[in-house]
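Notes continue from the previous slide.

Worked example: a multi-chain complex. Inputs as given:
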Amino acid sequence: MALDDLRRELCRALDTGAVLSDPAQLATYECDGLTGYRVVPALVVLPASTSQVAATVLACARRGVPFVARGAGTGLSGGALPHAEGVLIVLSRMRRILDIDVANQRMVVEPGVTNAEITRAVAAYGLYYAPDPSSQIVCTIGGNVAENSGGAHCLKYGFTTNHVVALEVVAPDGSVVDLGAPTLDPPGYDLRGVFVGAEGTLGVATKVTVRLLRTPEAVRTLVADFASPAQAGDAVSGVIAAGIVPAAVEMLDALAIAACEEATGAGYSRDAGAALVVELDGPQAEVAAEFDAVERICRDAGASHIRVAADDTERALIWRGRKAAFAAMGRLSPDYFVQDGVIPRMRLGEVLARMAEMAGEQGLRVANVFHAGDGNLHPLVLYDASRSGEAERAERLATAIVELCVEVGGSITGEHGVGTDKACSMPKMFSEADLAVMARVRAGFDPHGLANPGKVFPTPRLCGERPGPYKPHPLELAGVVERL
Amino acid sequence: MRADVGVRVLRPTDLREARDAVRDTPGALLFRGAGTKQDWGTAPESTDAVIDTAGLDQLVDHSAGDMVAIVGAGMPLSRLQEALAPAGQWLAIDPPLAADGATVGGVFAANDAGPRRLRYGTLRDLAIGVTVVLADGEVARSGGRVVKNVAGFDLVRLLCGSLGTLGLVTEVIVRLHPLPETSLTLRIPADPALATDLALALAHSVVEPSAMDAAEGGLWVRLEGRAAGVNAQADAVAALAGDLGAGCQRLDGDDEAAAWRRLREAHAGQPGETVARAAALPDRGAAVTVALDAAAGAAGVRAELASHAALGLHTARLTAENPVACAAAVADWRRRVSALGGTVVLRRGPHDLDAWLDPEVTPLSALTLMRAVKAQLDPDRRCAPGRFVGGI
């Protein structure tokens, strides 16, 4: 009843055809990139302007109806999973580039503009937008803001939050608010910084101001083959110890190499135990000096072969192979979970050994693709859903792997977000007090909890109650925190 | 530094003592590191007790391989840098007042930074984890010990720059950078218009300076990295300056260090000076300078300007016999900079005569949300009440 009323109001406020309620149409929005979770939303709206987003959110707020924002739906943690009694706000129609300020290296776009479009629009000026998630061809800047997306090059350049300077957002009460500014140090709390990465739980971004970087003078890329990931890890440590900050350091293990080669033929050595991709960029002479050092360090660490990209075409091929890694797993296994965890880089060898042990115990294979420079692991847990119990074992293994990351002092997610997928793992990483304080910040923005409810924070409904005797928090055991 | 006459001062030495001090001390609290930026913001409405972080000064952990350090909030920044240097690393931030003992927690709370912000950002970019004690004694952490981490809300950024109005930050986890192998600085004589043009041209060139400051009648361009890279970049800067009709002078070693010390400290000002900071888009640099000259001229005060030119940040130091004139100049400059799309805040000076920020000139559309966040984290307004924007 309330929903019928809401639908009528939204039909008046938005363009004809911008409010979907036909079950077949609604069903196309039932999941994002994490396809294991599916919920059909009550309504879908496709606003074309900030005022239409504001009208939608206000209509929801008046009735206490939850709303979920969605960009391209490429997220891997179920952050854009719809709410069954809620409105899904799809921002794909808001895809205008509003302003390009070349002199000050700023650009203002609507949230539905894709990551790659931003760079395409300014490439002629010698500028680019740095964060480069693997899905950059299709993922939207609005989704990047929600997830604080990274990418292979965030080791040197940082994440979305380092490159988004201002936002226009519709707050959960329907008001339109500016967070941040195109200039530095806008007075007040850095609410922009809180909003970025809050996974849509604080409102809906309707305009995004990004800073652009000058395209580097030189880019050099190599692929070094090693006998094992641990040996490749030694090379990474050597590079870091030499005071070099590469633009990107990526590692693939043997299974990942095999999958990439099946899918792309990018030229990775199939007989290597691990492939290390190192990319340097910057001023020509600087890059030349450091690239020589990187080659030497790789050789000293035992590289059996080093391939240096001869030109942009070869570099693009190397990256195509790397970025296809997730999708390529389909060549090796009918089903797989993509995991995302972070460890202190120095613990790599130990974590890989533990992970192999855990996979062996479950009788499953795990392929590994890492952003090796910053310890961000993407273990791919391979399984066959047609075999009884295998999916459950794979899911348990995937969860155990992120919990291992926390145990060694890392994080449950480096870039895919918490979303629906990991909300129940949050208490592994944060204490009740930590989560309570985050919830208070959220209540400041959204006292009624209407913006993307059920995401990020564990709920009893999602995770079950956790009564029982006191058990020391994993972080206490790891010596990371003390209980007062 | 303000006198603490009649005000209790507590110096906790660990997290538990800090928690107890915040929770169990009634009334309005002021958190203090070395006290070098106590003037920032509006004077708090009241202070019943000062919680001093001097006892929270440990380098808790330095993982050189991971390039991460866990630092007690009260640790002086200069002492941290000394501890990191043997590993060839540093916390890549060079704010003023480090020589006066500025602490990591204080720099964090103020979100202060120096010339090399151009390359490395501020602690908002470099801090990856934080521990905070809220007024009700709740102890919370955000972020963690790894750089790449998107789990949970980013309270690190919220707290950085909050001037101690949300809670007591007891510990900060920071990412580190390698100390550059070589540094070289070029000084290009330039008036404000040329300095702005040069800074923009360099920002669009293949050169990647770590700092570009306009002050003392010139543009100062700092290049850091490998010797070969730095020399090649220096030639490129000289060529570009030549194209715009300017020569340049090269500085290294002690001369270079002394120059940057001066340039950096110019943004802090001296006792007796009124210090105001403008932020504008970088291409408004010359206009911001002209605006200051006009405002200072009209009010009859002396004005010096130091700018992080490529960042669009400008610090004015004003002196006059009568502080009322300085306040008038700041107010006038604020209006003029606002017309250029920028903001001006008062950092040091006659707070009783001029606001830190004038909401009439600089309306904040997010003020309602900021108040709501403050009300959630510090509902009784115990943490430096009134110090922040809009009376927060």
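Summary box: Chain A has a mean pLDDT of 93. The first strand of chain A starts at residue 19 and ends at 20.
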